[in-house]
Design a protein that fits this description.
This protein has about 600 residues and is of the alpha+beta class. It is about 25% helix and about 40% strand.
């Protein structure tokens, strides 16, 4: 019986201890409940089980200086595991008085837990608000991360720049920095400016005070839709060194290490839509400041030769985000698909350079052909107005070639002026009486008719063979020219990628841009607004073989995979050759 009671009490205490250890707790703790108006308050929300969906109180009458800072710890003591997860905020009061910090909530194991409200008294400002031992206070006052936006209220497709800067000053020094959150710029066309190794500028200024300044990131953005667009925050994890109150044997302060998570917070860019008033019908989306011209490489040539016509736009703005106008020529000029070429660079002031479409034109007949003037319209955000530019009207003189075969208009008119006067004796040569005479009979094979009937079929056969051979050769030459044209087109688009084939990131970025630019020029579409499935559907609708369109989309996916997953297996040479073959095949099929 005694043994049974001992076993019973032992089991009871074991179960009780287990229940106490398994009990979930979620508490709020403050550094002080009475503080001066110029002091700071630290509040920790601590739980002993891992929770989700943490919701802090509203912190009415307080301003959040930093936070939330999250800390997690696990430990084993005598075989017993302990867990702690803490969310920390640093607050400063907005006014004097008695205030209540409300309840925080968290979900643990499917149950919602809340903290108890905390009463805080805020008094007059104190003479020594800062505790020299308060590490967090020193960090919050002496380090800042900001995002400087050049224009928070741009027009649609107007370029803006954003510069991320880290400011810090004594007694803090930064020993290590890593990115926890990187903005993706989802609603913007974006380009990161390379800044190389981050360097410290000892003469930076933040809010009128001297700081050490580090430029962490630079980006050029072009908003792709109007309205309030959110710029995602940049968040850095910092390893800081700052002096403590302890000293070494030589009287020097001992440095302590501290971790700090700092963020820029979200930025809102208010993008204005382009004005609809006085908006031209031929406006294709160009925003900036541009010059426009139509240039011929020659204006006098033979009918068997070709010439180049370049539509050229240069200036500063969204050069690679709009379509160039098309050339308009007479039907007797054979026009090939244009070669698109971009010579642009991206700086902090935006995209600047030149874009052009080069058309190869072959005249069929001799004559003088006019090249009509072309219009190009863009929106100038500084003047807040649309501008339309016109090219010169040009004339191409084609000589030494076949004529069109059409009768001359003047000669036809002159002939029509001659009146026909009937004559009574016009038909007197017709004999009405028939008189039959028998001529001397001749041998047929010696007659002219025999030899004519003999040689005329031979001449006709030889002539037909020569004509057929000439036409077939001409057709074959045209096919060969089109094949060469397709190969030159592929080389043109892929030349930029081939130059940087040794650099994987640059190569696949250039290759993807070349594939999109080809579709943009060939199908007259804006590929930045299309998914890969829509691109494949458009190619199939144009009559492209399904296997070729699938392989084309597959190459684009390889580019994205190589850019965003560098560890994946890739073959740059194989992707370059395959892209050239696909462009040539698509060009021939279309």
């Amino acid at each position: 019986m005694l043994k049974f009671l001992k076993l019973y009490f032992f089991s009871f205490f074991v179960i009780l201890t287990f229940n106490l250890q398994a009990q979930v707790s979620f508490d709020a703790k403050v550094s002080k409940k009475r503080l001066g108006l110029n002091e700071r308050l630290r509040i920790d929300f601590e739980m002993n089980e891992n929770g989700d969906n943490f919701n802090p109180p509203l912190f009415k009458n307080f301003q959040i200086i930093s936070g939330p800072q999250q800390a997690v710890s696990r430990s084993w003591v005598n075989g017993v595991q302990s867990f702690s997860k803490t969310y920390t905020y640093f607050l400063t009061p907005r006014s004097k008085g008695n205030f209540t910090i409300g309840q925080a909530e968290v979900t643990i194991n499917g149950e919602i837990y809340k903290t108890s409200p905390i009463e805080i008294e805020v008094t007059n400002a104190v003479k020594k608000p800062n505790d020299p031992n308060n590490v967090e206070g020193q960090i919050d006052e002496n380090i800042h991360l900001v995002a400087e936006v050049s224009n928070p209220n741009p027009y649609l497709n107007e370029g803006i720049t954003i510069i991320y800067k880290l400011y810090f000053r004594n007694p803090i020094s930064v020993s290590d920095v890593s990115e926890l959150e990187t903005p993706s710029y989802g609603d913007f066309w974006s380009h990161l400016i390379k800044i190389g190794r981050a360097e410290i500028n000892m003469r930076g200024t933040f809010k009128g005070e001297s700081y050490n300044e580090v430029v962490w990131r630079k980006a050029v953005l072009y908003p792709q839709k109007s309205g309030n667009l959110i710029l995602e925050p940049l968040t850095l994890d910092l390893t800081l060194s700052l002096p403590s109150n302890r000293r070494d044997l030589f009287g020097r302060r001992i440095l302590t290490q501290s971790q700090k998570t700092i963020t820029t917070g979200e930025k809102v860019i208010k993008v204005k839509d382009l004005p609809k008033k006085n908006k031209p019908e031929n406006f294709s989306g160009a925003v900036g400041k541009f010059d426009f011209d139509l240039i011929l490489n020659k204006n006098t040539l033979k009918a068997s030769e070709s010439f180049q016509a370049k539509i050229k736009v240069r200036g500063k703005g969204n050069l690679n985000l709009f379509n160039l106008p098309s050339i308009n020529v007479p039907n007797t000029l054979e026009v090939y698909e244009p070669e698109h070429n971009e010579k642009v660079k991206v700086t902090l002031s935006g995209i600047q350079g030149t874009v052009e479409d080069s058309y190869t034109i072959v005249p069929q007949f001799q004559g003088k052909y006019p090249i009509p003037s072309i219009e190009f319209t863009y929106f100038d955000p500084k003047l807040e107005a649309y501008k339309t530019l016109f090219s010169q009207e040009l004339i191409v003189d084609v000589y030494d070639g076949p004529t069109s075969g059409l009768p001359s208009v003047n000669s036809g008119l002159s002939k029509s002026k001659n009146s026909i006067v009937p004559n009574d004796s016009s038909f007197r040569f017709i004999k009405l009486d028939t008189k039959l005479q028998q001529k001397n009979q001749k041998i047929f094979w010696r007659s002219y008719l025999f030899w004519a009937l003999l040689f005329i079929p031979i001449v006709l056969i030889i002539t037909s063979i020569l004509i057929k051979k000439y036409i077939l050769n001409q057709t074959e030459d045209l096919t060969i020219r089109k094949q060469k044209r397709a190969q030159q087109l592929a080389k043109k688009y892929l030349s930029s990628a081939k130059k940087v084939i040794q650099d994987q990131a640059k190569f696949y970025e250039a290759l993807e841009r070349a594939l999109h630019n080809y579709l943009k020029a060939k199908l007259k579409i804006e590929t930045t607004e299309l998914s890969k499935s829509k691109i494949q559907k458009l190619l199939n609708d144009k009559g492209i073989d399904k296997q070729i369109s699938s392989e084309y989309v597959e190459v684009i996916e390889n580019c994205e995979r190589a850019r965003y997953a560098p560890g994946s297996s890739i073959n740059t040479k194989e992707d370059l050759e395959k892209s050239g073959e696909l462009i040539s095949k698509i060009d021939r099929q279309i």
